[in-house]
Structures are given as structure tokens and as C-alpha cells.
Batch of 4 targets.
Target 1
Amino acid sequence: MKNTDTEKWKTSLQALKEGNRKYLNARTGGGDISPEKRLHAFKNGQAPYAVVVSCSDSRVLPESIFFAGIGDLFVIRVAGNVTDGIALGSIEYALSHLKTPLVVVLGHTCCGAVNAAIKGGACGNIKMITDKIRLAISGERDDCYASRLNVEAEVNAIKKALAKANLCAETIGAIYRTDTGEVEFLENSENL
């Protein structure tokens, strides 16, 4: 990755961290959703500074968690924050067409999909989600650690897919604590 690319993803990561700090004590959302911002995004297109792959859990709102507004984040939501070909295609679009420099896989505590994978017995289409999570967590029974393992597996899967597609972006994991609102980034310290 070129030095300017490194600077871009580090700036994006810093924006996410600062947004989460603001969120921790906020009573309402703080991202810019003004008519002016909407019109600017309409006229000039989107330029998100990060892709966030998150769970579709109603308690996990990436734009709020990171105090982001219109056009700031490219969010992909699916139960268990797992990816498939369609989600990977969405990530590829953000990187290749929108030049987004950072991908964050955002897992969370008390994840229903992770708990279902731990307990087993899912059926229907839910089984596709829990089967993928079960592969990631192996026999782990601790909910919080299993969520972390699931995030790490998705980060690795995304990195492999991006390398195969010849796309470059920093890809990291994060865990959102549903009780406190704090996001813990699972960063590789040698890159920072």
C-alpha cells in the first residue's frame, strides 16, 4: 500500500474513533444529515471514508455509533456480520468505484446470530449464517470471545477476497459493546 493510502485509512480510522468517543455521551445522533449535505451528496455523489460490515441487530447503528452523516460510511448489514459473494461485491464496489480506503468488520456483544451458532439447531436460511459462524468459532462457548473470533474470520475472508480481486484497502475488525456503546478496534499495532 502506498504511503498516501496508508495516510487515508489512518485518517478514516481516526474519524471512526473520534465519532465513537462523541457517541459515548450523546443523547441524539450527531452526523450531518442536513438538507445541504443531502444536496451535496446528490450533486457530487458519495465519498465514504469507511466501509462498515455490521450485524443487522437493531441495537447496532453504525452511523450513530460513529457519529457519521450522509455519505460518510458505506454500510453493509447482515446478521452475524458475515459476508457472502453479494456482500463482497458491495465491498469491492466501495473500494474500486468510491475509493474507500478502510473496511471495518463490526461485531458486537450479545449477538443473537453468534449465540444461535453456539447453541446450534438453527434451521431454514438462518442455518447458512450460523453454519458460517460455527466454522469461525469452532467449539468456543463464550459469547464475547466467539464474537471476536467471528470478526477475525470475516476480516481474513475479506482480505483474501480483496487480494484475489486485486483491490487494496486496510481491513480491520472491531467489537461494539451493546451495554456501553464503546467500540474496541482489533488493530494490528505494527500498522499504526
Note: Strands lie at 50-54, 73-77, 102-108, 170-176, 183-186.
Target 2
Amino acid sequence: MKKNENQVVVTKSGYETLSKELTFLRTTRRQDVANKLEEARSYGDLSENAEYTAAKDEQSKVEGRILELETMLSKIVVIDEDNLDTNRVAIGLTVKLEDIDKPGKMYKYTIVGSEELSGMNLSSDLNRISQKSPVGQAILGHIVGDEVSVKIPKGIRKLKIVSIDRE
């Protein structure tokens, strides 16, 4: 799939997560912040009201994230993992890697769009990495058996692609 600069590529689960986050922010979080503002206003003088200032800051963050999600979702391209070619590493596929310098040390990652891992609710799934991460960039487009070198903060890690699957 060719991607233009304005497209945001995500997996189906990433799209669902972003959509749920937007719905939550528009309804629950927005109302929570409005309630905090209302309560803070009741304390009187707004110029020296720390609760009001904090609630306004929180409102700004929530509204900013809503705008960010609305913009992102308007440009989204959802990857259909069921139809992905598993011959080459791509967004939406799960890759098993072996650390060449530590034989037997294996890593398993699902490659996702970087937008899936951004925002207020970061994924707690440690087996998902962005296509823009150092490992993600190094392995994209490679095939089983390929060896890649990844520059990480502690130096260079050499990895071998063991398998590419749909999860």
C-alpha cells in the first residue's frame, strides 16, 4: 500500500482504540472537567483560585487531544491485517526476532502505526512497537532470515527475523 504524507496508517484495533478514546474524551472527560470548573468557580475569586487554574489547564489538554484525534481520524487508513502479505514485515504483522548476540533470546512484536501508541492513553501492551521506532524502522520491508542492525541508546543490536505472522 502506498501511503501519502497526510495519511495516518493504523491497525483495526488501533482505529478502535483511537475512536473509543475520542468518544470517552468528548463525553466523560469533558463533563468531568466541566464539573471541576463549576466547582472551582464556586470558590470565588478566580484570579487566585488554584483549583480553577488547574481545571482550565486540564480542559485545555482534553480539548487539544480531542482536536488531535479528530484530525487524525479524518486522515486514517485502516490496515486489513487479514489480507496482509506475510512475506515482508509491514504494519499490522507480528514479527519474531532473535538477538544474534544472545542466541536463544527472542522478541515478539506487532508493528503498529505510531499514532496508535501516542496520546493520553498509551498502550500497556509492551509487545506493540511503532513503525517509527528504531526496531520498527530497521525491520520494515525485510523477510524471514534477514539480519538487521538497530541503533539503540546502548549501542547496536543485531537481530534476525525468525517469523512474520498475522495475529
Note: The mean pLDDT is 87.
Target 3
Amino acid sequence: MNIRHTTEHDLEQIMEIYAYARRFMAEHGNPNQWGPTHWPPRELILSDIAANNSYVCTEKDQIVGTFFFTQGEDIEPTYRIIEDGAWLDEGPYGVIHRVATAGTIKGVGSFCIRWAYEQCHHLRMDTHKDNYVMQNLLKKNGFALCGIIHVTEDPYPRLAYEKL
């Protein structure tokens, strides 16, 4: 597998992957994380592409996954306030959002997370309390549960994870 920046040419495939991910989450007990708002919107993905923060995972030139990644100092405003816990480290970090796979091969999520970790060695991620698939993926990849954060997209609290 390989990771590369997303291009606008990839947009329709990316949106199909997100539609698949919404169906998958709903079928696995997590209908509220992306479903009601049809998250993420096309405009956000186009903005991510323009900012060079959108990536695709490919296998034999086929897109098998997608995600948002950026890194820096205090880059995620929703991570400034954490409840029922604390972050492990306050230094610069990378953040991964909107991880989704095509469901065609195993290990794509872990591959994307490992790639992001290789870029900065300090990651933060969050997920819905009903997203057991992502929670297990994060635990499997060495993340620690740090507390709860809130996002602006919906009223559901998110479990906040970090890996150093």
C-alpha cells in the first residue's frame, strides 16, 4: 500500500468511500457519527485537497482508503478543551480525521495511522462513543484514551485518543 495526496480527480471515489463508511458505521451500531449530517461534505473535502491535508491510500493504483492529516502547534481547536481526563503531552502534534476505507482489503486503517505516526510521532484522534471499530483500531495501534472532546458538527461527545 502507498499514501499520496488526494487530487480533485479522486473526489468522486473519495465520496463513494465516505458513503460506504456511513453505511458500514450504521450497520455496526454507529448511525450518528456521520450519518445524519452525511459527513463529510464535498466542500470540506475540496478544502482539504486545496490545503494538501487530504490523503488517499492506494493498492495497485486503486484507492482503498482516505483520511485527513495535518500537524503543528495547537492545530485542532476542538482539542483545546478536554473533559474527564487530560492529554498526555501539550507539544506539537499530528491529527487524523475522517478515516474511511473502501472495505475491499484488510489493514488499510492501520496502514494510514502508522503512516501518519511516522510523519510526527505524536498523534491525536477522536471518535464517537459508538464507533467500536475505530476504538479497537486505535487501541491496537497504541493509542491511549485521554478524555472527551466536543465537535461543532453535532451534539455527540467524542472519545479523545493520543499516541506518543
Note: Strands lie at 2-5, 54-59, 62-72, 93-101, 123-128, 144-149, 158-163.
Target 4
Amino acid sequence: MKNVLIVVDMQNDFIDGALGTKEAVAIVPNVEKKIAEFEGDVIYTQDTHFEDYMETQEGKKLPVPHCIKGTEGWKLAPGILALCEAKNSRTIEKITFGSKELPGLLKENYPEGPDEIELVGLCTDICVISNAMLLKAWFPEVKITVDRSCCAGVTSESHKNALEAMKMCQINIK
């Protein structure tokens, strides 16, 4: 089996930092368990911004500096980072909600496409849904799943809405 787990933006700023929530804190043990038990390749994304964040379109619409490259908030959460390093996994820095590099990397490593792609992480309603939809467009016949117990949104309501939207686009929700 060629299974891939995409761990989206499990960074300090999204967990308990600048944009952290109690829901994000609560999923960390679930995500750690998922990674530790996953049989297949694990790829991590890291939301990455720079000192000019407030001048960007995102900075103007969300005026909360976060995930500034090199800061503590930009780093993967400690337990997640340890698992990433232990499995010598790939990390992709992304400056957009959906990673422009991720589909090409998967196509390069799996010319026929992976058997299954599973996504977990933060935030369900922004970066998880963006990456899930991007991957669905590139790999329409690959089973793509999002594990709701390993995701959290900006709000509980927007998390649920994102899960419903993905379900309508034939992404499996478990």
C-alpha cells in the first residue's frame, strides 16, 4: 500500500500561540498518536510568513502576525516535531493556504498516485480544506480522507462547515 499522511500546520502559533484555541490544544495527542501509528509516508506542512506579513493580503485580512519563519510560533509543536524527526519525514514550507508544492511532490514520489491520502491538522476551515481540495483536483481517483478527531477549526462551527463542504466534494470524513 502507498498511503500518505499529510500533517497540516501543527505549529505552535496555531495550537497555543497567536491563533491558538482550546480545540487545537485538545487534538495534539490525537495527531501524535495518528502519526506514530501511521503506516506509510508522512509529510508535514508549515505555514510560513515573513517580517512583511502585515503588508500582505493575508496580513490585511487577518492582522495577527503568526508563523513568522524562525520564531517559536513557526515551529512544529514539540511532540509533532519529535515524530517528524524520528521518521525522517519531509516538511514543506508554504506561503499560501494550500501548498503549491505538495501535489507535485506526491506525483513525483507516486507517479500512479498514492493509494490513499489522509489529512490531519490545523485549521480545518482554512488550510486543511485548501490542501484537501487541491489534492482532490490533482488526484480525483485517489481516496482522500480527513480525520475529524485530528483537526480543529478557527471556531467549532467553521470546523463543522468545512467538514461538510469537503464531504460534498467526495472527500471522506472519519
Note: The CA atoms of residues 139 and 164 lie 20 Å apart.
